[in-house]
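Homework help board

Subject: predicted structure for assignment chain

Our instructor gave us this sequence and asked us to write out the predicted structure in token form, then describe one feature. I got the tokens but I'm not sure how to describe them. Can anyone check?
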Amino acid sequence: MTQMKVRDIMTTQVVTLKGTNTIKQATKKLAVDNISGAPVVDDNNKLIGMISETDILKLVLKYQKELNLKDPSLHILTVPMDDVDIEDEKVREASKKISETLVSDIMTQTILTTVPSEKIIDVVQAMMEYGVKRIPVLEKGVLVGIISRGDIIFSIYKRKV
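My token output:
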């Protein structure tokens, strides 16, 4: 029996973002596509980073802490991102700053990657060791897919039924 390879279960229709996208655009894309993170690529589909819900929420918390210092009753998560009708000026400004931040400003740049020929068990071990949920798949430096914990779990499920 041959060992499964990344190419056997990776997702090839990858949702990506550009470093020039704003956090508002990234948040919308993650929400609409129901994903928790995405590779960030340049115009040649070369991987330059990863953006995740965690990166975005850390940014939100940074601004929330600043608001707490000004007025503990102000809450950034109670308003839509960069809504011009936000009554409190401090909250409006913080929301605007968050939404206009570029993906490249907060993305993770040190990224664990793999190749299509890698054994799945090695990918699982790397995911567990480094605490990552998804790993971009590169071929000659170009993004060709992504493999997530969900892809692996679904593959286990398919083989068991």
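Reply (TA_rk): Your tokens look well-formed. For the description, you could write something like this. The beta strands are 17-18, 37-41, 47-52, 134-139, 142-148. That's the kind of observation they're looking for.
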